[in-house]
Amino acid sequence: LSLFTKLLTNALVVEKQPVMSSLPQRPLILKTRVRFTVRVRFLANLPEFKYLLKVKPVFDKDVEEAKAVKGFRHFDFNRDECKVLDVDSPRGDLVTEFGHMSLKESEGRAKGSHETRLPVTEELHVIKFVTQFQYAGLELNIEASSLPVVVISSTNQAVAAWASVMWYNMLSTSEPRDLLLFVDPPPLTWQQLSQVLSWQFWSCGKRELDEDQLSVLRDKIVDDPEGLVHWNNFSKNENIWIWIDGILDLIKKHLVDLWRDGSIMGFVTRDRTQVLLQEKHHGTFLLRFSESRKHGAITFSWVDHSNGEPFVHAVDPYNKDELLLTPLPEIIYHYSLRGRRGTHTNPLIYLYPDIHKDAAFERYYNSSAMSTPKMSGYVPRTKGDFSDNPTPPPSPPRDMPMMDMDVDVTEEDDELFQELSEFFFCNSPTFDISSRNG
Amino acid sequence: LSLFTKLLTNALVVEKQPVMSSLPQRPLILKTRVRFTVRVRFLANLPEFKYLLKVKPVFDKDVEEAKAVKGFRHFDFNRDECKVLDVDSPRGDLVTEFGHMSLKESEGRAKGSHETRLPVTEELHVIKFVTQFQYAGLELNIEASSLPVVVISSTNQAVAAWASVMWYNMLSTSEPRDLLLFVDPPPLTWQQLSQVLSWQFWSCGKRELDEDQLSVLRDKIVDDPEGLVHWNNFSKNENIWIWIDGILDLIKKHLVDLWRDGSIMGFVTRDRTQVLLQEKHHGTFLLRFSESRKHGAITFSWVDHSNGEPFVHAVDPYNKDELLLTPLPEIIYHYSLRGRRGTHTNPLIYLYPDIHKDAAFERYYNSSAMSTPKMSGYVPRTKGDFSDNPTPPPSPPRDMPMMDMDVDVTEEDDELFQELSEFFFCNSPTFDISSRNG
DNA sequence: ACAGTTTCCCGTAAATGC
DNA sequence: TGCATTTACGGGAAACTG
Fold first, then answer.
1. Which residues bind near strand C, taking a CB cut-off of 7 Å?
2. Coil, strand or helix at A76
3. What is the pLDDT of residue A20?
4. Which residues of B are less than 8 Å from A343 in CB distance?
5. What is the pLDDT of residues B355-409, one digit of tens each?
6. Rounded to an integer, what distance in angstroms lies between the CA atom of residue A282 and that of residue A297?
7. What value does the mean pLDDT of chain B take?
8. What range(s) does the SH2 domain occupy (chains A, B) (predicted)?
9. Which residue of chain A has the CA closest to B378?
């Protein structure tokens, strides 16, 4: 039995509580003071080591990069205990679970000036698991490392942290782990970025971005002659990502159904909206996201032929608060404009190109909510019955993930390394999508 | 200089952060793990004791009652430090401030069965401050106690805790402190309870309850032939208080202006609404609180003469979520009913008895928000400009209070005791109201 | 199983640090 | 002073516990 020195890690981010789905996801975002769980699994099936391997988690162990960056933060685990690997009955693997883990910032921090420090969401850390044991006169130090971890202290940093995670992933498919990636972050090609963005929409709304949508995004995001996207424009100066993230959140919370159905064109410029609608029937409308509201908002534009010339109107966008109170299908159903002499009419008839709105949305009308709202006689309205429980996307970016980590220990084996690295990407949404949507 | 053994305390609850208002309030509700501040002041002006008095806070010191109740919880302070009394420049008093205090439940809890335990919101505790010093060969133990403290662990317990605080206050004006009051809580007279309730409305909405409103509440609350109100009916079985508290919260968050103006009749039965409205002009309406919604909701009823017979309509009540999005004056302004042939009219014309709605509410209309909402052309709506910042009531029940406590140390002095006890009640809202509103 | 109680943690606001 | 980062804590929901 020859043993090894080089170790491998694969990190799995899992749905929160009991759904121990095994869909692999990207690196980790951990929030200080918030509980997470790590499961460590010995890759080689060696039940004879039961109770012999004592594993200890260490934060940023031997991270040279940390010393190179001034003001790099230090963290510790709130509990600092070891666990002994035990046999996991179904598969017979050696595993253990660190539950109730959480991070706290530790004092010994070399405070660098603001200039020289990396923003916290660009600081990459790792959690390593170390074990030491004797066997046949041999003493071995085994180590396994997590994928990079972004440590945040407040949920308002999660958006920026997620941008880092995406950028990191696109750049380090098979390269060695580079914790200083954001000291001088390389640009992405539009091809790379569009792919990640599309995954995000799949993850939140069960549908990727189509060519037209991607084209609008490309025009917004790419301003480099060579078609590259620079980190600073993506997540710092222009901060396109914060805008996209607001839309993803809006979809996830209030528009999963309509987005999955493809009823939301979403990314269309005003000009193009004008062009598309004016040659359509009176009352044709489309749904697009607000380009100015940073926290995600959706609006509808419709064409009006009643004055001879086609005229395209647009409504002030609806944000999350409003959609929480009234789901979009209901808003569309009840939308009405005051005409001459106090008459009211609903100008929304066909969803672009020519689907009657009821054909598109009828299944989401909620009978009790759809009666004229706030009418006399205490009409009971049960609001949001179908929007309060949208099918939750499996493990979406915006959830703070539990950390469920298979620490895979094996002999020196570059092939396996390669295999697992690919595994990480192949099981990502892209793969799933291409096999589902053609 | 003769000294003393009997000590006195007066507890002041103060607005949260910097507003060190000195409006005295009732006993205390403290939430575990939430910071509070206690200021301790030596009543006698004895600057020569500067730096000689070392004060230590102790939770439930020598509380015999605690031992009598099975499962009585124990708490400790998260920090356990002493402070030395120093001279406070403006007044020359000896004071000190315990900042960053918080409570945590301690282990040594005698767990009683559910049956025998007091509900946590009926468990009364005290915080005592002890100091020991030598003077002229005399060694003295000085102690001062807070008014009773209700310790909760979650904000959802604050409503029930506040009920306890009110009940306690009405019953222990000048009696000795009884921490077991809720083991067998005495009833209140309607006279007593109505007074406290009225204060609550003053505190949240700057206006007390009038005779008509109190009469409706009396009919709802008193079911005892002798006009007594029993604790079980007030805060347990029927739990009238949770309903009233929801309304108080609604007022505080969304209706302070209208309530202060007296525009909200609020407590009116449906029957009486019918009687009042049907003899009024077409379009007369009144505002009343929902009697069924537990979390506070308001509705309007109006009389319609357009079909010959007066008919009184009512609208489905608006709750906090809805009022957050659209302030009530705006809702009333925009309310419209679909009539025959698609015409819409606003049935609300006169606020009962005969004030035109614009006369009553015009000052609360927000110009940009009042344009027809969600019309075409991206009409910018600035929602809630006048409702997001209602004048906050000074130190309202629903805020988790900081604890700012004058620990008043004096010689044996029953008169002062009496005086301070009265002070506690005389500076309560009642007094203020009667001197303001006549 | 259940009800009372506590913990968990997002999201906003405020405080803090540099 | 301004901006980046952390803390505070209400509120809803889940977890705990007898």
1. A 31, 34-35, 100, 102, 111, 113-114, 154-156, 398, 400; B 17-18, 32-33, 73, 105, 114, 117, 119-121, 152-154, 156-157
2. strand
3. 25
4. 341-344
5. 999 999 999 987 666 666 565 444 333 232 222 222 222 233 433 333 334 443 3
6. 25
7. 76
8. 259-338
9. A316
